[in-house]
Design goal:
CATH superfamily of the largest domain: D-Amino Acid Oxidase, subunit A, domain 2
Oligomer: single chain
Number of helices: 11
Helix content: 25-40%
Distance between the termini: 37 Å
Number of domains: 2
CATH topology of the largest domain: D-Amino Acid Oxidase, Chain A, domain 2
Low-confidence stretches: none
Radius of gyration: 21 Å
Bound molecules: flavin-adenine dinucleotide
CATH class of the largest domain: Alpha Beta
Order of helices and strands: EHEEHEHHEHHEHEHEEEEEHEEEEHEEEH
Shape: globular
Strand content: 25-35%
Length: 421
């Protein structure tokens, strides 16, 4: 009787909590094992909050290597590279470069968009069903500081039209009509408006869903670390803080730490930590603040309205897993805030945060079954895990229950990395 089975979900980020919720809804007995004291304390904590399936884009894109190289040594830069001899980094970079080719980009973007569009529908259903309020806003405005940024966006624009996604290319004046507080002092070549995309407070949502899941019977075990997994016949064994446990099935949703748990079982993935930063500031002048979410394409930094606060988030630091706050990163976030909404907040008083994106070189996550019976994964969501969480949770519950997921799983499973040594 599958519905009496016990399933353990490792990781209480937004991905693990969504998975646990949908598994409980499917009738399973679910336990979530989380190393920290609450849900959404790692990557899911301080992210930009953007849920933009219309513009969900792999970082591996045509023109991106050149753009990143040209900004690497600027005083404010979207990318920081800590010099390191880490072989895993250079291997990841090689794989990432191969994915920047146009045809690969189109394939990866279509895969990401498939799961992200589905996920937005599921998120909306969850929101309506449980009457959730997580400081959500509607609409997403992409800002292009230069004609070069508009040119770089062309491959994505073509795909938006192909997929029938509502969007409007706007000039600077139209952009300022959408976001009236946008500073006129900063040069703006144009924008792209996606009216159906959204943003919201990811940890607030995750905590609300945790409470709902608890009411459905999901058990959360905090301050417990899974140190090893083991095949025990049909069951999966887990070493948790030196004690042995087992479950009928296990879902690994441990963010960046997933690769370390899976490798001893022969499941190897090029999951690499890409650090990002955010700044959160209280709004001091509401007339001068953004109304919804924006993205500064030149700096790859998002600006999001979260209730009475503004969050500015983005940047990619390679070669570092520490939570140290790098001065260049903080300066870049403050600059983006000052450039677009100078009177909305005092950015020098912002609270700063850094988090690790669990990034695969191509972009889409890896979902579902593994070669090991009853071991499943929901990992590799990189820079868009919040946007994909609800849909990925639903897909995992479908796969485990033996139901056919509502979306095509092509390119979203471990199969695409099956031949990796
Ligand atoms: C600066 C920044 C901005 C971002 N902006 C956006 C955005 O606008 N939109 C978007 O969609 N995404 C965004 N993201 C990405 C998004 O935050 C992540 O993709 C998402 O949070 C990943 O969720 P997760 O649950 O997989 O990982 P996490 O939130 O990291 O959760 C994994 C959990 O597993 C636990 N864990 C790990 N190992 C173990 C173990 N062995 N035992 C027990 N527990 C364990 C960890 O403690 C952690 O709580 C951003 C990320 C960053 C860093």
């Amino acid at each position: 009787m599958p519905h009496q089975q016990q399933i353990a979900v490792i990781g209480g980020g937004v991905i693990g909590v969504c998975t646990a919720y949908f598994l409980a809804e499917a009738g399973y007995q679910v336990v979530v094992i989380e190393r920290l004291g609450n849900v959404a304390e790692k990557a899911s904590f301080g992210n930009a909050g953007v849920v933009a399936p219309g513009y969900v884009t792999p970082w591996a894109a045509p023109g991106m290597p050149k753009k990143l190289l040209s900004t690497l040594f600027r005083p404010e830069s979207p990318v920081l590279l800590k010099p390191t001899l880490d072989r895993a980094l250079w291997r990841w970079v090689r794989m990432w470069l191969a994915e920047c080719e146009l045809e690969r980009f189109r394939i990866n973007k279509a895969r990401m968009q498939r799961i992200a569009l589905y996920s937005r529908d599921i998120l909306q259903q969850l929101r309506d069903h449980h009457q959730l309020d997580y400081e959500q806003t509607r609409g997403y405005l992409q800002l292009f500081r230069s004609e070069r940024d508009i040119a770089l966006a062309q491959p994505s624009l073509g795909l938006l039209a192909e997929h029938g996604i509502a969007h409007q290319l706007v000039d600077a004046e139209q952009a300022r009509a959408i976001e009236p507080a946008l500073s006129a002092a900063t040069p703006l070549a144009g924008g792209l408006h996606l009216p159906d995309d959204e943003a919201g407070n990811c940890p607030l949502f995750t905590k609300q869903l945790k409470t709902i899941a608890q009411d459905m019977g999901v058990e959360f075990h905090f301050s417990k670390t899974v140190t090893a997994l083991e095949v025990q016949g049909k069951r999966i064994g887990m070493r948790i803080d030196e004690r042995e446990f087992s479950a009928d099935a296990v879902v690994v949703a441990a963010g960046i730490d997933s690769a370390r748990l899976l490798a001893p079982l022969g499941i190897r993935l090029p999951l690499y930590p890409i650090k990002g930063y955010s700044a959160t500031a209280s709004i001091r002048n509401f007339d001068e603040a953004p109304q919804a979410a924006l993205m500064d394409e030149s700096y790859k930094v998002a600006i999001t309205r979260m209730g009475s606060r503004i969050r500015i988030a983005g940047l990619a630091e390679l070669g570092s897993v520490s939570t140290d706050l790098h001065e260049v990163a903080l300066r870049t976030l403050a600059k983006v805030g000052e450039d677009w909404f100078p009177d909305a907040a005092n950015y020098s008083n912002a609270s700063y945060w850094s988090g690790i994106r669990p990034m695969l070189p191509d972009g889409p996550p890896v979902l579902g079954a593994t070669p090991i019976r009853n071991l499943y994964v929901n990992i590799g969501h990189g820079s868009t895990g919040w946007a994909m969480a609800a849909g990925c949770g639903m897909v995992l519950a479908d796969v485990i229950s033996g139901r056919t997921p509502e979306i095509d799983m092509e390119g979203l499973t471990l199969a695409r990395y099956a031949r990796l040594p």
